[in-house]
Amino acid sequence: MQFEEIFGDDEEPDEFDFVIDTHRRRFVGLLIDTSRSMALAQTGGMAAIDALNLHLAEWLPKVRAEGRGQLRDVEFVVITFGAGGVAVASGNRKPSARDDGAFVPAARLTLGPLEAGGATPMVEAVDLALDLVEQRRRHVQEVHGQQCGGPRLILITDGEPTDFEGNPTDEWRRLAVRLQQSRETGRLMLFAFGVPGVKDDVMRELAGEEGYFRLQDLDLKRVLDLALVATAEHVGYRRVADKFEDGF
To answer: Where does the VWFA domain lie (predicted)?
Structure first.
């Protein structure tokens, strides 16, 4: 199945004015592992980080196109963890949930080339994403008087959580409790996509059995394709799982 069948027309968007008074907004946090392993791993004859940048260049126009349709009310915040520690890669690249801050409407989402290096401060990245989407929800409700749909986090990683120095850490256990509480109350959906090198037990604790998807190879294009499916409002865990099992 192609993206057109899931989202509709994938025509490139024209200049887009984001409507703030009639639509319910929804927030998506995209968390990308840019640790040193992404520079060392190879796929298709190139470093994984280079392959990721290549596929992102193809993926982002699809996101912007869908920003005129099914993703019209979606705002993205992109957070990387690895090179440079934990960093916001979208909007003004600052951890601000205010207007013209870190969040960008889907139709305007752009990213610069990502670099790989350093440790895997995954816990701190997810904590930041959780805090930012909650701050953004409050801001939109209080300042713009809009309703907000449940946020989604999409995590892409090939490793296990470490501290900022690269040492193993158990801080993910605390985070797992926080995420479980959010799932149980319906406040959040987390889709975690793991590629070779990932720690399965940790990811299952963080995302739950239904929210964790492990790829057998370093197919970053497929990961991004599945991530785009997971952003659609009508799509839940089962729909993504069906696409995953079908080899989408």
So the answer is: 27-232
Q: Which H or E element spans position 171?
A: helix 171-184
The pLDDT score that the predictor gives to residue 44 is 86
- The domain spans of the chain are 24-245
Tell me, what's the pLDDT at 23? 56
| CATH for the stretch 24-245 | 3.40.50.410
Pick out the chain residues at pLDDT < 70: 1-23, 233, 235
CA distance 248 to 145: 38
Query: What contacts 81, CB < 8 A, 6 or more positions away?
Result: 31, 32, 33, 34, 35, 87, 120, 121, 122, 124, 125
Q: What pLDDT digit, counting tens, does each position of 104-136 carry?
A: 999 999 999 999 999 999 999 999 999 999 999
DSSP letter for each residue of 44-103: TTEEHHHHHHHHHHHHHHHHHHHTTTTTTTEEEEEEEEETTEEEE-STTSSS--STTSS-
Question: Are 21 and 141 in contact, with CB atoms under 8 Å apart?
Answer: no
